Amino acid sequence: LATETDQLQERLHSLQAEEEILRKTNWLWLEFRNRWRKLFLIALLILAAPFLRRTLWYFVGMPLVSRARPIELAQETTQTPSQLTCSNSARTLAIQIAPGEQLRARSGYIQSDRLGAKSELFFDRKSPNLSYRSGLVLLTRLEGFKGGSEPRKVLLGAPHDQAAYLMQVDLKNHPGLALRASRVVAVIGDVNIRATWRIKNLHAWATSQLRFLIFSGTGTLILEGYGDVQGSYLENSTDEKRMPLVIGFDTRLSYKTRRAATFLPYLIDPGREPLVVDVFEGTGTVFFEKNPSARARSRSTTQSIADFFLDALWKLLGI
After folding, report:
1. Cα separation of 240 and 254, whole Å?
2. Non-local CB neighbours of 163 within 8 Å, separated by 6+ positions
3. Hey, how many other C-beta atoms are within 10 angstroms of the C-beta on 116?
4. What pLDDT is recorded for position 315?
5. DSSP letter (8 states) at residue 88
6. pLDDT tier at 314 (50, 70, 90 boundaries)?
7. Cβ pair 89, 282 in contact under 8 A
8. Would you list the DSSP string of 101-162?
9. What is the model's pLDDT at position 304?
10. DSSP assignment, residue 70?
11. What's the pLDDT tens digit per position in 62-116?
C-alpha cells in the first residue's frame, strides 16, 4: 500500500510539473481563452468610438452650437468709403510696385529679378511678437524704382508647389479681412495686422479657431490657395462654404456655423464630408480655395504625421 501511494504521489508531481511547463509555454493562449470576450468588447468599442463621437457631435453637439450668437469681428467703422478688388487667380502672378512703395514677400516667392532686395525680419516692426506668432517673418523686401514714374514689375509664384495659385487683393481704407496668415504670401502698401480672440463663442470652438488675424488699411495682399483661390462677393445675402475651403472673409460679414446636411457621408468619411459648414451673412467678400487636399497629397509620410499636430495648432491661432 505504501508503494502504491508513493507511485501515485510521483505521478501527481509529474503531472503538476508537466502542467507548469505547459502553462509557461502556452500562457498567452490560456490568457486569451479566458479573456477573449472582454478583449473582443474592448476592440469593438475602440473601433466604434470614432463613429459614436461623430454621431454625438452631429445630433447633439452641432444643434447646440448652431443656436449660439454669430461671430462679429467688425469694429466701429468711419464714413470713409472703402474698396476691395480681386484679380483672377494664376500659378504665377505679375504685380507692380509703384515708386516709393515696397513689397514684402515670403522667401522664395519672388521669381523675377531681386535687384536691391533686402531682408525684413518681421512683417510689422511695431508688433514683432504678433508677426512671429503669425509666421510672417524672414520676408524679402523689394522697393519700387526711385526717381522714376514707371512701376516696377515683379513676378510672384509658389517656389515648390505646383498646386498653388495666387490672387491679388487690393484694399483701400478697408476696415479688415480675417485671413489665415499662412495664406498671405506678400504685402504691398500700408496694411496693418491685429489679432482678436473669440474664446467665449461656440462657433469658434466648433471650427477650432479661437484667434482671428485681421489685415486692414490701404495696399495689396497676395493670397495663396490650392487647386484655385477665389473671392465671392455677397451683398446683403447669405453664402455657405465647406469649412476646410475657407481662407478668409470680410470682417463686416456675420460668421456662424451649422452641421453638414447629410449624415452618412460625414459618418463614414469626415475628410470628404466635414461636419461643420461655414455660413456668412451680410455684405462683404469670402475667400476660399478649391482643393486643399492637393497640398496634403504632396507631403511625405513624415511631413503628414508632423503637420497633423502642427496644423491643428496653427488653425487654433488663425495661422
Report:
1. 12
2. 226, 227, 291, 294, 295, 298
3. 12
4. 59
5. P
6. low
7. no
8. -EEEE-TT-B-S--TT-EEEEES-TT-HHHHHHTT-EEEEEEEPPTT-SSPEEEEEE-SS-T
9. 47
10. P
11. 999 988 999 999 876 556 788 999 999 999 999 999 888 889 998 889 988 788 8
